[in-house]
Design brief:
- The complex is a heterodimer.
- Chain A is an all-alpha fold.
- Chain A has a domain of 140 residues.
- Chain A contains 7 helices and no strands.
- Chain B is 73% helix and 0% strand.
- Chain B is built from 2 helices and no strands.
- Chain B starts with a helix and ends with a helix.
- The chains are: A mainly alpha, B mainly alpha.
Chain lengths: 240, 99
């Protein structure tokens, strides 16, 4: 194992440990120290990982966008792997958003789903990245498929600012608490949200990193298999 | 005539039984009469609460960890397939090198 790989392993495990510690501290603070919201009650505590999950989805989608643009500029396995890992991370966090949001809405709005602009655009974004992952899983791994997926990664990112500004441009039921136009949080609610952003940012980075490594390993293995097929004698290629 | 230890042991047991009976009687006096028990369930007037917020919160947290663990499982299975392909490649190279 080279020194750089050993160093990256140490950094990975250190970040993983830090993520776990932040998660534990955040859960402790959410349930033991954070005040219960006056109108919605205890279900509002979903907020502390629902919003950071949406942020994680943005990070994954951003990685997919950057990887896709970089792949168009100069196609390499690493750039393609980075874009694919970003799309998968966006799907994971998107699912968390789409599950936790309706559970919160069931209490806050009295129904699991409404065709609110932010909910609808968020679901559309998750479907785009699901399509990306499905294309990469079932349509092969040639140059054409990679370029098609990269185009989807670039075009799919166009929906991200629409999600963000949908609550400001169109009326809807989705709350606007933080950011411009929001009423703000009670004093005890800032810390768990801040910790949630930290934990989910680290988790998203770790997922992107680990998935990129696996995809790169797969690409290198495929190249080795192709090379082996050229010089292995007939009859020795079984299983390769 | 000797001292009867069994009779002595019986005294605290009898006292405890008497206290328990007296307590039961007192509780029975303050309990709701049979005719006053609730015989039907009615919803809160104008209430919209269909499910506990705490239950929804627990479900949301469970979903979070199930999704993350599911992703971990998928990653693990992909890594296992890569390992299997590496094994096949090593075997093929070993077979060709042995000849």
């Amino acid at each position: 194992m080279s020194l750089s790989r050993k160093t990256s392993d140490i950094v990975f495990y250190a970040l993983l440990g830090l993520t776990l510690v932040i998660f534990l501290v955040q859960i402790n603070i959410i349930f033991l120290h954070t005040p219960i919201e006056r109108t919605m009650g205890i279900v509002q505590k979903i907020f502390y990982f629902h919003v950071p999950s949406a942020y994680g989805m943005y990070l994954g989608a951003g990685a997919c966008f950057l990887g896709s643009v970089a792949y168009f500029l100069s196609p390499t396995d690493a750039r393609d792997a980075f874009a694919k890992a970003g799309a998968e991370t966006a799907v994971v966090f998107g699912f968390i958003v789409l599950v936790s949001g309706p559970l919160w809405a069931a209490k806050a709005w009295g129904r699991y789903w409404v065709w609110d602009p932010r909910l609808t655009t968020s679901m559309l974004s998750v479907l785009i990245y699901v399509a990306y992952v499905v294309v990469r899983s079932f349509a092969g791994d040639g140059q054409a498929e990679r370029k098609f997926a990269a185009a989807l990664g670039v075009v799919g990112a166009a929906n991200l600012p629409i999600i963000h500004y949908s609550v400001q441009k169109w009326s809807g039921q989705h709350p606007v608490v933080i950011g411009s136009g929001g009423g703000g949080l009670a004093p005890g609610m800032h810390l768990p949200l801040f910790l949630g952003f930290g934990a989910f940012t680290l988790l998203a980075l770790l997922l992107i990193w680990s998935r990129t490594r696996i995809e790169l390993a797969r690409s290198r293995l495929r190249q080795l298999e192709d090379e082996a097929l050229t010089y292995l004698p007939e009859g020795e290629t079984h299983g390769v | 005539m000797g001292y009867d230890h069994r009779r002595t042991r019986f005294v605290p047991i009898a006292a405890l039984g008497a206290v328990t009976l007296a307590a039961d009687f007192a509780v029975a006096q303050t309990a709701t009469e049979p005719g006053q028990r609730s015989a039907e369930f009615r919803a809160v007037e104008g209430g919209t609460e269909m499910v506990s917020g705490g239950t929804l919160l627990v479900e949301a947290y469970a979903a979070l960890w199930i999704i993350l663990l599911g992703f971990l499982l998928i990653s693990w299975r992909r890594q296992t397939r890569i390992d299997a392909r590496v094994d096949e490649l090593e075997k093929a190279l070993a077979r060709s090198g042995a000849k």
